[in-house]
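Cross-check.
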Amino acid sequence: MGALQSVPGHPEYADLAEKTGFSFEQISVLHKRFKQLSHNEQTLRRDHFNEIPDLSCNPIRSQIIEAFFDQRNFHQNSEGKVQEIGFEEFLVVMSHFRPPSLHMTDDQRESVRKEKLRFLFNMHDTDNDGTITLEEYRHVVEELLSHSGALGRETAKSIADAAMLEVASISMGHMEPDEFYEGITFEHFLKLLSTFEIESRMNIRFLNMDTPTLCK
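Predicted model, tokenized:
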């Protein structure tokens, strides 16, 4: 899978740069991080991500890790999960966190925005049914709210349920008492985040393996 055997300037780098938008220098840096994470193996497994200090403190670490093994994020029109990834797959997933170029057209910027939002949507649509259900949404909210210990699980659950009702009212408008909101579709997701500037805010900070991070 996607193992890299070249140095900057070789065709493999040019192909990866075309696919991801990273420069040769950025690809070289990310390749070093990949080899460091994989202990110089050709592929990464989920357990390798357990060695990333900053990631260990993230309340949705499991969703972030799974995103790297979700074939929906590989730009290959595939579905399902894999057990290991090569450097190419790693780089393609990392490209979702790359800020947009200052020289992009409005259409290109909108395309990048939708791609990032699709990545986020996939992260929370864990069963790949095209909908973020109440259970999936509740799990994320509970993880985020209860991670600090300030709120108990039941309180976090109540907040998640209330938030989902708010999402339903925004997405569907008026609902009859007997109507059931099945969950957030990607179209609803785009509507909910229409005013959120995701392009430059979606980033990742776990590539530095040198400094231990203590979770608070």
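The radius of gyration is 19 Å. Residues 1-8, 208-214 have pLDDT under 50 and may be disordered. Passed to J.P. for a second look.
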